[in-house]
Amino acid sequence: MAAAAGAGSKSRASGSAEKADAAAWMAVAAGTLGALMATLDISIVNSALPTIQGEIGASGTEGTWISTAYLIAEIIIIPLSGWLERVLGLRTLLLGTTVLFTLFSIVCGTSTNLGMMIFGRAGQGITGGALIPTAQTIIAQRLPRRQQPIGTALFGVTAIMGPVIGPVIGGWLAENISWHYAFFLNVPLCAALVILLLVGLPHEKAKLGQLAEADWLGIAGLAFGLGGMTVVLEEGQREQWFDSSLIQITTAVSVLGFICLFVGQRFAKRPVIKLSLLLDRQFGSVAVMGVFVGIALYGTSYVIPQFLSNVSGYNALQSGLVVMISGIPSLFVMAMVPILLKHVDIRIAVAMGITLLGLSAIINSHLNSLSVGHDFTDGQLMRGFGQILSFMFLSQAVVQSVPREDAGDASGLFNAMRNMGGSLALAAISILQDKRLWLHERRIEESLNANSYAVQHYVSSNGGITMAAPQLGQQIMGQAYVMTYNDIFWLMGVATLATLPLVLFLRPLSKNAKPAAVH
Question: How would residue 51 be classed by pLDDT, with cut points 50, 70 and 90?
């Protein structure tokens, strides 16, 4: 092991003169596998969510917590990954998070109620979130410079494939075996990851003394601020907002958390998140666009399976296959990224990506009760092109918009902002689904006059008022669902397109830029 580590170090020192050894590539394989698991579990529950909700007794709006808990936990851990790596050592950190990720996956797979599932998903997010940025660290540390683009390409394909194939795998397991195995699948993957880590990465001595220098105020503020804000957004509608003591308390916790986070910015030797980077014109613009791109991506990947299940009657596997369509153009464009980075102006590429993302959502805002999977094809193809153009170029802009010593903080902050966009999207969808569904149901009911010929004919043709009333109620509910989902798609599209003016704040990339890793 020591010899392997020495060879790896020698390779790094000599730059392009040498090739990485087998241990280095095993380390890269470990990082890639870990990132695959983490990104896979973001979306693996989406297509099976209606089934999971039914079995654990959760409503449609409560079910958003199953996805939101993972994203919020990831937001908290991603900026901390660099610090944890320095304190514990890379191998120790990854081994610990891998084992814990497995245990939390088992908790999710054995969940019998919503609370247990949320606990498991939050645990998955905390541990899985650390697997993503550390994969990029392995590529930078274990591969010589001339082989790093290969590692970056492998990571990029993994990062794209995880969210794309997740709904398909989750749907297939839910339909053919059981939704529980969407989580149990992680057990053999984690076992393989542990073996690769033990062989491919050298042990590093922990530096526990750095725990005393940590920005604990900022860490607590980040957790309580984001966690409290999410509870307020998710539960506010059901709890009648500030009429509820729960919302009052969680709002106070959130405000106190953000105050602690900002105090940490002022007094900590090294803040948990360097928020001052947001004051940079380019990086601030990139971060804001990242939030809204996250809203478009995570929002649509959640709403599409919900529509197909509630309106079109699709099962989990069929919904997953529709979601997977967006991965086809993403993989195609990924191979062209190095060429695009050299020859396409970042402002044009990002503008095109955001436009495609926005239009893909707006296209899906004209659905009806007869819409099925193929009605999403055009939007999904546009979304696939848009997500790779926007993310790859925005990630490159992150690296080049800040000093080299701040690149790690900037990358963590950007990824956290993007996940925050996804969390905000799911919370907003929960609120909109409740409010707009009620509104559309009342409007449809108001348009039906009990004495009209059409209503009387419907009643007489369907066995009288006793039999016709429930059927009519179901049809009203179905139409209200369609109108609600159309509203959600339209709002996501408009919100994404509204960020287009920020493209003007971007600066051209260096023509010699290497593809930056992104998840």
Answer: confident
**Residue 223 is part of which domain span?**
215-271
| Res 349: pLDDT | 87
Token readout for 114 is: 């919503």
d(CA 211, CA 421): 30
Domain of 472, CATH number, reads 1.20.1250.20
In angstroms and rounded to an integer, the radius of gyration of the C-alpha atoms of the chain is 24
Distance set, CA 28 to CA 36, 38, 106, 338 (Å) = 12, 15, 26, 20
Total domain count, the chain:
3
Tell me, what DSSP letter sits at residue 272? S
Q: Are residues 73 and 58 in the same domain?
A: yes
DSSP string, 64-130: HHHHHHHHHHHHHHGGGHHHHHHHH-HHHHHHHHHHHHHHHHHHHHT--SHHHHHHHHHHHHHHHHH
Q: Exposed, middle or buried, 258 (CB in 10 Å: 0-12/13-18/19+)?
A: middle
Residues 159, 285, single domain; the answer is no
Q: What is the structure's pLDDT at 414?
A: 79
Is residue 109 scored above 50 in pLDDT?
A: yes
CB 492 within 8 A of CB 360: no
Distance between CA 322 and CA 304 in Å, rounded?
8
421 and 431, same domain (yes or no): yes
User: Is 473 found in the same domain as 414?
Assistant: yes
- Rounded to the nearest integer, the mean pLDDT of the chain is 79
Query: Given a cut of 80, is residue 63 above it in pLDDT?
Result: no
pLDDT number for residue 486: 92
Name which of 98, 94, 207 is nearest 141 in CA terms: 94
Asked if the model's pLDDT at residue 356 lies above 90, the reply is: yes
pLDDT digits (tens, 9 = 90+) for 508-518: 766 555 555 44
DSSP codes of every residue in 332-361: HHHTTHHHHHHHS-HHHHHHHHHHHHHHHH
Residues 225 and 184 in one domain: no
pLDDT over 90 percentage in the chain: 9
The CA distance from 31 to 132, in Å, is 8
Are the CB atoms for 356 and 386 separated by under 8 Å? yes
pLDDT at 487 over 80: yes
* Pair of tokens at residue 106: 């088992």
- What is the C-alpha to C-alpha distance for residues 374 and 114, in angstroms, rounded to an integer? 33
Judge whether 64 and 90 are in contact, CB under 8 Å.
Answer: no
Q: Provide the 8-state DSSP code for 312.
A: S
CA distance 199 to 2: 10
Residue whose pair of structure tokens reads 């798609």 in the numeric block = 489
